[in-house]
């Protein structure tokens, strides 16, 4: 069972992002404040939960959360400020959208750009340790997946309905064959090599 709180004195929100490692599309983030007595045996890191269960959990989280919000940073902004800062910015935007402002934040991961007024604690693998971070991971993941499925209708050749913008072999081959779309991130200075296939992505 995941933990309900990192601390018990201040109103606490958990934050997480989805889409950081993708080649296309925005990064999404969510912030969630759960009731102090919230419990759920199945809630966990979105990456280890089947898709059907993720969407069922989203409904329950949204029904029972004290407050929740989702925000994003698009690929153009990602290219301007880099994906790490974009992930932090998406979390800041989600926090600012909460109708009830928390007094303490717990953040999935080991780094965060400090919020102007709210103290925080980073938690490595926090989405598998704290319920509010796990809930944020579910919301960020499902809302981003929904968005990528919408984009897939515009560009079906990239298989975004399935890969959600991640660098699968089919996605990489489609980039070679068709080039970039307006939704692709352009600043990943890496060579993508799979089965002898190379795509050089240069800023």
Automatic annotation (TrEMBL):
The keyword Manganese applies. One of its GO terms (molecular function) is RNA-DNA hybrid ribonuclease activity. Residues 10-199 form the RNase H type-2 domain. Keywords: Cytoplasm, Endonuclease, Hydrolase, Manganese, Metal-binding, Nuclease. PROSITE patterns: RNASE_H_2 (PS51975). Its cofactor is Mn(2+); Mg(2+). Endonuclease that specifically degrades the RNA of RNA-DNA hybrids. It is found in: Cytoplasm. Manganese or magnesium. Binds 1 divalent metal ion per monomer in the absence of substrate. May bind a second metal ion after substrate binding. The keyword Nuclease applies. It catalyses: Endonucleolytic cleavage to 5'-phosphomonoester. Pfam families: RNase_HII. Its main location: cytoplasm. A divalent metal cation binds at residues 16-17, 108. InterPro entries: RNase_HII, RNase_HII/HIII, RNase_HII/HIII_dom, RNaseH-like_sf, RNaseH_sf. Its EC number is 3.1.26.4. Belongs to the RNase HII family. This is Ribonuclease HII.
